[in-house]
Amino acid sequence: MSVTDYPSLASLIRALANRETSSAEYAETLIARTATHTALGGYVGFDPDLLRAQARVADSRRSAGETVPLLGMPIALKDNIDAVGWPTSVGTTALLDNKPSRDAAVTERLRAAGALISGKANMHELAFGITNHNRVTGIARNPWATDRIPGGSSGGCGVLVAAGLVPAAIGTDTGGSVRVPAALCGIAGLRPTVGRVSGRGIAPISSTRDTAGPMARCTEDLALLDTVLTGDAEPVAPISLAGLRLGLPSGRFWQGLDGGVSTVTQAALELLRRAGVVLVDVDLPELDQHNEAAGFPIALYEFIPDMTRYLESSASGISLAELVARIGNQDVAGLLQPLLASGGIPQDTYAMALTAREKLQQVYSTAFAKYQVEALVFPTTPLTARAVSPQDTVEFNGQQQPSFPTFIRNTDPGSNAGIPGVTLPAGMAPDGLPVGLALDGPAHSDRRLLSVAAAIERVLPKPTLAPL
Length: 468
Prior knowledge:
Blueprint: H1 9-17, H2 23-36, E1 43-46, H3 48-63, E2 74-78, H4 105-112, E3 116-121, E4 133-134, E5 138-139, H5 155-162, E6 168-173, H6 179-185, E7 188-191, E8 211-216, H7 219-230, E9 245-249, H8 259-274, E10 278-282, H9 287-314, H10 320-325, H11 330-342, H12 347-371, E11 375-379, E12 393-396, E13 399-402, H13 403-407, H14 412-417, E14 421-428, E15 434-440, H15 446-457
Parallel strand pairs: 2-3, 2-6, 9-10, 9-11
Antiparallel strand pairs: 1-3, 4-5, 6-8, 7-8, 7-14, 11-15, 12-13, 14-15
Helix pairs in contact: 2-3, 5-6, 7-15, 9-12
């Protein structure tokens, strides 16, 4: 068999139910494919024998009549999510031997649903970056072009799913870390409303901004994983695009795009118009001002107490000072070492940042109500994947720009507001690289947003696995 026979969790579930294949047979296919493509750097932890053993147990449970939703489904975890039996390195030197004694809450839910933990996925060190150029755990490479980045910080998850090494993965997203690699690797990703998914057992950046989220090949899989991770079983009901109102946000979202991204996303909008979607220009006044005031101050203030609590609860024996002192990547060290040396973000700056976040949330809620749109639609990233490089800059519109703010330009505001966001594969740019189309919805509209995404997915070009 080939992974292309069952390209999604949903198709694999149906095949297992019909006895077309077994979990053990599918696991062997993934093991062989993974062995062939280790140079992609998607995994930092992969144990073929453990995956085989889990698959055999799943087949026995199925034969005994069990019907839990993910029985026998291999799922990869970003390496900041605790799973007993696997180190949680968070991509950093000091935690390479960090072996949790308890599963993260999301891991518990996956196991209870019958999922097989296939391994731990590579990531940008401590999740503070967008390239996944990691000197500690290795470079992850985009399977569509191995000289290009996969995005980050959940870059390994994007690589594994896009390359067909696993059907789905769980990443984390603080400013775009699920949606950016999903877009650059040509897959789908969901950032849930903050608070819907438990963060227990996940190495944090910021409790106000962080959330785990699924990465897969279609919205049907995202919806299934969202139900498992959150317990929200509200149906993702089919909807018609005829008369559906979507907002085209003003400002940064559609400006100064890379030529290939503009071509693909404008074509996607035309497909939506032909399907009957009503596209509405939406003004987001003072969004940039509130977003800038909220984003980094909240993340950098909360990193110190939140990561300290994680280190203490994990019994890693590593202090925050040691963790930061041993950072292996200069971009991350250059941010966090001065932060710790200075004593962190002042309390009054943090308080002002939280106020700015409330104003940002109001901008979004007012816009959704005023323009009566189901979601905002925009390019997930303003550019396609750029070259693998240790430099923290990227060529964009003829100039060198800082990589991190350039790639998260469109995903960051919704992240800071804590609202749900989806990215879908929109097509391939002339350079042969994937382009993502993003949807942001009102807070707590996650299941409705997935319905909207599923309807849009049906009219977009059908995505494929990377041609390895």
